[in-house]
Amino acid sequence: MAPIDDVDDMLELRKRCTRSVSGHGLFTAAQHLRAIPEDTELDVYGEGGVVAELETEVAGILGKPSAVFLPSGTMAQQAVLRVHADRRNRLTVVFHPECHVDKHEGRGYERLHGLVGRPIGESARLLTVADLAAVAEPVAALLIELPQRDLGGEQPGFDELRALVDAARERGAAVHLDGARLWESAAGYGVAPAEIAALFDSVYVSFYKGLGGLSGCALAGETDVVAEVAEWRGRHGGTLFAMWPYAAAALTGLRQRLPRMPLYLEHARAIAAALADVKGVTVLPDPPQTPMMHLLLAAPEDAIVAAARTLAVEQSVWTWRKTSATGDPGVQRVELSVGDATCAMTAHEIRDAVAFLVA
């Protein structure tokens, strides 16, 4: 193995780091496998075993009659939007301009399901009732993401959220929650996940982001809707012969990390406060509304990446491999999601690392 100061590849360098400012850190295959209990009961094509156990537990946490495990959120959300559209004999689905199903899934809802996607509102702010009112055509479903990842984890006030849901229902539309980070959203609102889920006809939750599972998600809702989504899972090729490794790791992550979300939020706010006096760093939103935030770094990308490499080599601290453009070449955006690795560093240690990137 080459000495760390000779390692050029950032992905290889990440493996050598012992600390990380974001998320839960990098897991080895052995660590992932250790998250699967030895007494895990196997499923067969998603039936029985730990898959059924996970589905029952998620349905209970979300306060929904039923839930189904799927290997990806892309599959889950396309399927449930199709179900909602078919039931209303409408094609149009409306969502925020930064919606994941529109930006990152190859427009699968359109090419695979014949749905019509319509972004509403403005990219730099949350959806409002007025944005929905500006749509004249019949709407099959309104998709709401909580929190809004591309806005740094921002989310509306609970009363505003309820008003938006009510406005959609008055028009006969279904309301679906992209809850990939619902666990973080609930901590931000200070309520149980079920209180948020109760507003929605269907809810998608992820297991590998904030919960640190292997992969996969669940779709929860009324029993008949979930049953149709399960059929679409099969049509999409998502009913794998053995789904137990993903489900078991998800169940472990759910039980271990869901109770920690308020702690993650507290640490996120401490980090934001510690960064307040660092020149060239802007926290979005400030203070963080959930256990995540975006940072605007006033430096060229190549300078930030070079500094990140120096931190990794000299201090074994992992920050970011790359940044996202902002439209200003002198300002870059990075995402900081608070997890176990973040909490293993103090807010001031993270402040020092981020300050080094823009020094």
Walk me through what this model shows:
This protein folds into 2 domains: 4-26 and 259-358, Aspartate Aminotransferase, domain 1; 29-256, Aspartate Aminotransferase, domain 2. It contains 16 helices and 13 strands. It has helices at residues 10-16, 29-34, 49-62, 73-88, 100-103, 108-111, 129-133, 158-170, 182-189, 193-197, 223-235, 244-257, 261-275, 301-315, 340-343, 347-358; strands at residues 19-20, 66-70, 92-95, 116-119, 141-145, 174-179, 202-206, 217-221, 281-284, 292-297, 317-318, 324-325, 332-337. α3 runs parallel beside α12 (244-257), α4 crosses α11 and α14 (301-315) crosses α16. The radius of gyration is 21 Å and the shape is globular.
In short:
The chain is an alpha/beta fold.
- The CATH architecture of the largest domain can be given as 3-Layer(aba) Sandwich
| Strand order in space, largest sheet | 2-8-7-6-5-3-4
> How many individual domains?
2
Beta-strand residue fraction: 15-25%
Choose one word for the global shape: globular
The CATH topology of the largest domain is given as: Aspartate Aminotransferase, domain 2
Distance between the termini: 31 Å
Determine the CATH superfamily of the largest domain: Type I PLP-dependent aspartate aminotransferase-like (Major domain)
Relative helix content: 40-55%
Quaternary arrangement of the chains shown?
A: single chain
Arithmetic mean pLDDT: 96
What count of helical segments does DSSP give? 16
